[in-house]
Amino acid sequence: MTPIDRLLGIMAKLRDPDGGCPWDLEQTFATIAPYTIEEAYEVADAIERGDMGELKSELGDLLFQTVFHARMAEEAGLFGFDDVANAMSDKLVRRHPHVFADEAAKGDAVEQKARWEDIKAAERAAKAQHGVLDDVPVGLPALARAAKLTKRAARVGFDWPSTDEVFDKLDEEVGELKAEIAAGDLDKAREEMGDLLFVVANLARKLGVEPEDALRDANAKFVRRFGFIEAELAKDGRTPDQSDLTEMDGLWDAAKVAEKAGPAG
């Protein structure tokens, strides 16, 4: 028995109405979807931390999510795990003619990327997805989806010529947000905040930066520097709520200096 056959068998047993797990039996595509997203993030987290042992475990958890969805689909007479694997294999072969079939399709990375996009466009047309933005997944994290939406629109020429125009738009959105805050209209301020974040995602895309990755790094930096503040205050037997903004701001600056100095500093 192969490892994947063993996993498929375990999943089938968990979903067996006769002796299976009550929790697993209650699940649907909709209830499992949040766990699938969570497992994908945990894979990314293990990679970020460089923990290869944890990555092995998290990849297993993510694989189990695929097996879970495939099992529910099989029970509904829709498709099974083999269909999922075959569909992925077919897609990879179709999208890589320069590797699997057409010698004439060989070229540099830029040419291959352009051909990849042409193939994907043909696939969207075959699915009757005629809109440029039709298949940008709604379930993506909002910041990542914003960058993907602007990237897709840019392919058909709907894009600012340079980052200069994006910065101008950024200034405009900041001004509009300030105006709504000053007017006390929090509903409109929320809308303007969304517009501002969308422009930031667009700027990231123009710079070749993945906004989710950049924000993840910023989050890690914040956690690291705030931990420095807590550690410094703990030397005096205090916690942040026993300090004040001026002191913590100074410790924040000290954390930045310590980071620049590095371990040897």
TrEMBL record:
One GO term (biological process): dATP catabolic process
Reactions the enzyme catalyzes: ATP + H2O = AMP + diphosphate + H(+)
Keywords: Hydrolase
A Pfam family reported for this protein in Swiss-Prot or TrEMBL: MazG
EC number from the UniProt entry: 3.6.1.8
Residue ranges annotated for the NTP pyrophosphohydrolase MazG-like domain, each copy included: 27-100, 169-225
InterPro entries noted in UniProt: MazG-like_dom, NTP-PPase_MazG-like_C, NTP-PPase_MazG-like_N, NTP_PyrPHydrolase_MazG
Enzyme type, top EC level: hydrolase
GO molecular function: ATP diphosphatase activity
Similarity annotation: Belongs to the nucleoside triphosphate pyrophosphohydrolase family.
The name this protein goes by in its record: Nucleoside triphosphate pyrophosphohydrolase
Species of the source: Brevundimonas goettingensis
